[in-house]
Write a structure and sequence with these properties.
- The protein is α+β, with helices and mostly antiparallel strands and 279 residues long.
- It has two domains: 143 residues, Fructose-1,6-Bisphosphatase, Chain A, domain 1 (2-Layer Sandwich), CATH 3.30.540; 110 residues, 3-Layer(aba) Sandwich (D-Maltodextrin-Binding Protein, domain 2).
- Helix content is 35%, strand content 24%.
- The protein has a seven-stranded mixed sheet with strand order 3-4-5-6-7-8-9, with helices on both faces. The protein has a five-stranded mixed sheet with strand order 11-10-12-14-13, with helices on both faces. A two-stranded antiparallel sheet has the order 1-2.
- Helix 1 runs antiparallel to helix 2 and helix 6 runs parallel beside helix 7.
- The structure holds D-MYO-inositol-1-phosphate.
């Protein structure tokens, strides 16, 4: 049988590597920062430039008519964020922009590809560590050339959990986030962590460094590639209420297994987040 989407996958890996090199170089020069939805929602010239490089290369290679593109900075500028059945690239040029601005050493390029609303592959290039995480549906997950799998820990008390604070500082939301973290910490778990990039967090679940990562308020471009990588590494994805994972819902639990996921879900205090594809 034809190796469907292999060409797109190989190209995505190459583009992610190229984009990562641009980010690394930019980090050594002056970083110009602007804000988006709030004073803590940062965007840099590099985010915009790298997204243009990625989408430009993809359009040149695969044609503008047949493929669709959802990119963080394009959506910020008013482009639609709707997943159709068409082959669609979902891109975060710089995941961990706050880290990038501060020189905190986790920054990732995230590129995913969906067809008929199903994710076919995901590539997360953690560009400061120079680690290429990647996975194709049904073909396993890899970090560089090594196969990766989730942790086999089943006891919540032997786990490390990642959660993030997001970019919304409204007191009610922050209160719920910290209340959830407090309850999970006091189960007790071995530790709570957060790398500052959702894409990298998911790769940490995929390679077994942590047992789970959850967040409300993330966007589809932060987690689309990571979702394929976690699944192919043997992990699971769920909604924060235990229902099925929905890429556009801005809510996600990723975990090594259902037992750990369910235990965390019991503690999550849910707050509203408008869907990515809200009209
Ligand atoms: C952010 C990071 C962060 C997560 C935020 C995201 P960005 O992405 O993934 O870990 O907590 O919700 O917005 O803005 O740096 O691409």
């Amino acid at each position: 049988a034809e190796d469907l989407w292999k060409k797109e996958y190989d190209f995505a890996v190459a583009v992610a590597r190229k984009a990562g090199a641009v980010i690394r170089e930019a980090g050594e020069k002056e970083i110009k920062v602007c804000t988006k939805s709030s004073t803590v929602d940062l965007v840099t010239k590099t985010d915009e430039r790298v997204e243009k490089i990625i989408i430009g290369s993809l359009k040149e290679e695969f044609g503008e008519g047949t493929h669709c593109f959802i990119g963080e900075e394009s959506v910020a500028k008013g482009e639609p964020c709707i997943l159709t059945d068409k082959p669609t690239w979902i891109i975060d040029p710089v995941d961990g922009t706050t880290n990038f601005v501060h020189g905190f050493p986790f920054v990732a390029v995230s590129i995913a590809f969906a067809v008929n609303k199903e994710l076919e592959f995901g590539v997360v290039y953690s560009c400061l560590e120079d680690k290429m995480y990647k996975a194709r549906r049904g073909k396993g997950a890899f970090c560089d050339d090594d196969r990766i799998t989730v942790s086999d820990v089943e006891e919540i008390k032997k786990s490390i959990i990642i959660s993030e604070h997001g970019t919304d500082r409204s007191p009610e939301k922050v209160k719920k986030i910290f209340s959830t973290m407090q309850k999970i910490l006091c189960i007790p778990v071995h530790g709570l962590r957060g790398s500052g990039t959702a894409a990298t967090n998911m790769c940490l679940v995929a390679c077994g460094a942590v047992e789970a990562f959850f967040e409300i308020g993330i966007h589809c471009w932060d987690i689309a590639a990571g979702a394929v990588i976690v699944k192919e590494a043997g992990g699971i994805l769920l909604d924060v209420d235990g229902g099925p994972f929905d890429l556009m819902s801005r809510r996600m639990v990723s975990a090594n297994n259902k037992k750990i996921a369910d235990r965390i879900i019991k503690e999550i205090e849910i707050f509203p987040a408008e869907r990515d594809d809200a009209p």
